[in-house]
TrEMBL record:
<dbReference type="InterPro" id="IPR027266">
    <property type="entry name" value="TrmE/GcvT-like"/>
</dbReference>
<dbReference type="InterPro" id="IPR045179">
    <property type="entry name" value="YgfZ/GcvT"/>
</dbReference>
<dbReference type="InterPro" id="IPR017703">
    <property type="entry name" value="YgfZ/GCV_T_CS"/>
</dbReference>
<protein>
    <recommendedName>
        <fullName>Aminomethyltransferase folate-binding domain-containing protein</fullName>
    </recommendedName>
</protein>
<dbReference type="GO" id="GO:0016226">
    <property type="term" value="P:iron-sulfur cluster assembly"/>
</dbReference>
<keyword id="KW-0809">Transit peptide</keyword>
Amino acid sequence: MDAAELESVLGPRDVVVVEGGDAESYLHSQLSQSVTGMDVGEQRWTFVLQPTGKIDVLARLTRADDARFELDTDAGFGDELLARLERFKIRVDATLTLQAADGAAEADEAARIAIGWPRMGAEIVAGDTIPAGTGLTKLAVDFTKGCYPGQELVERMDSRAAEAPKSLRRLTVAEGTSAGDPIVDGDQEVGTVTSVSGTVALGWVKRSSDLGDVVQF
C-alpha cells in the first residue's frame, strides 16, 4: 500500500501542531514512534498511549520544520489528542494548537475496510484498545527507542511474542450485517463486527478462532 492509496481511505483529519525548542524531545518522550532524526517533510505513524498501554489516539507525525511537528488523526479526535499531549507537558518549551478538519475530503470507506485500516471510534476505541492485534505495531512502534507512556505493555507482549486476546480481521459477512453484530464461529460468539461495506467487514475476533484474515501492515 503506497501513500496515495492510504490517503484516499483516511478522509478529513484533525491536526495538532507542536512547535518550540523542546517539541522534538517532548514528542519523543510521549510517542511509541521515534521522533529524533526525522528529516523535514518525513512522516511516521505512531500510537499515543495511556500509561496502561491502551491507545488514546492513532496519529501520523510529520516533521514540518526543525522545531515544528504536526500530528494528524481522524476527524473528531483532535481534541482527545491535544488533551493527552497537554496532560504530560510540564516545564516544556512547546506550544500545542489544534486545527480541526475542514471536511473537504471524504474517506473511501469501502477501500478502507478492504485493506483493513483501522479507524478511531470504530476499530480503535480510545482507552480500551491495545496496540497488539491492530496490525499496526510494525508501522507505528519503534522497539529500540527509550521510555514513553504505555511502553511496558507493548514491549512485554513483543518480547514474549504474546498473541493479543483479540486481533483485527477482514471478514466476509452476510448482506445486512451491521457494525456491532456478533461474529459467530460454529456455535460460539467469538467477536464483534466494527465496520461493514457490503459483504466485506472488519471486526475483532478472539485468538481461539481462525475466522477471517488477520490485518497486518
